[in-house]
Specification:
Layout: E1 26-27, E2 30-31, H1 67-91, H2 96-118, H3 124-148, H4 152-172, H5 180-205, H6 219-248, H7 256-283
Antiparallel strand pairs: 1-2
Length: about 280
């Protein structure tokens, strides 16, 4: 199963060093992990626990990705986003110039993210560069929202933490099973959502739709924002599954940068949508 993102479609863990890519064929009702194919290809001494159906475990080695690796890389990436946002907020007052810098930063972040998405191997420089420019963009728009809706960024951060935390708890509790069917249905909904949003943007640009169309600051805009946040939670579950599979099947340690990259993309998506949603509810008070 290939884990994607509502902002960018990204590749799963790499096939380098003999590791297999994602396989969409379900196994016993579940989507297979990125390393499920031929798990003994690079490890002839790995023993499969057939008694309980557990995945084959790679031998203990410092070259394999661990949860600690994912946590550390994610902290680096998200920390870079946070530092960029704080600096932009502090050094760039709300003005036409800062808006232009925000748009430029967003475009650079998009290009860096796309380059990383098509690379066969993770590049920490590209990922951290994306995080830095994305942070500048978030800092400017957060300051802009705060100047009109005081406290909106803080509420959006809390909302993002609540959504991601609740999603993780639900996932770990087993209330959501990430199967191939689950992924296909979610991806179909996400693609349809993005197509509708693209059409809506064109209608707004050409003056056919007023006040943002489906993205207006009204009840319809709030509904669209809630759907977008739910899609973000859906992609978080795919990210969690991908990370679990990568660890279980012995992904190379440097692949933890891809996990951090994917989590950052999804969390940024949720934060931006949460920021808009807070602003909409504040406007209706």
């Amino acid at each position: 199963m290939r884990s994607s993102n509502p902002v960018f479609s990204r590749r799963g863990f790499s096939r380098d060093n003999g590791y297999a890519g994602f396989n969409t064929a379900p196994q016993a009702g579940y989507a297979q992990g990125p390393y499920a194919q031929n798990p003994y290809a690079q490890n002839p001494y790995a023993q499969q626990d057939t008694q309980y159906g557990a995945p084959p475990q790679a031998p203990v080695t410092t070259d394999r990705m661990t949860m600690d690796d994912v946590v550390v890389r994610s902290a680096f990436t998200l920390g870079t986003v946070a530092v960029g946002a704080v600096l932009a907020w502090a050094l760039l007052p709300v003005s036409t110039t800062s808006y232009g810098l925000a748009i430029g930063s967003a475009l650079i972040a998009f290009v860096l993210a796309m380059v990383q998405s098509f690379k066969r191997t993770p590049s920490p420089a590209l990922i951290l560069g994306y995080a830095a420019f994305e942070g500048v963009f978030l800092g400017v728009i957060s300051e802009m929202f705060n100047s009109r809706w005081s406290g909106a960024p803080f509420q959006a951060v809390l909302g993002t933490m609540a959504v991601s935390g609740a999603t993780l708890l639900i996932y770990k509790a087993g209330w959501i099973r990430v199967t191939a069917r689950y992924a296909r249905i979610g991806m179909a909904i996400a693609i349809a959502f993005m197509v509708v949003m693209a059409v809506n943007l064109l209608l707004v640009v050409f003056g056919v739709a007023d006040n943002g169309g489906l993205r207006s600051f009204g009840p319809l805009g709030a509904l669209v924002g809630i759907i977008a946040i739910l899609l973000g939670a859906f992609f978080l579950t795919l990210d969690f599954k991908q990370i679990e599979d990568g660890i279980a099947y012995g992904a190379p340690r440097n692949e933890s940068w891809l996990a951090a990259f994917g989590l950052t993309l999804t969390l940024v998506w949720i934060y931006v949508e949460m920021l808009r949603l807070v602003a909409i509810f504040s406007s209706n008070d």
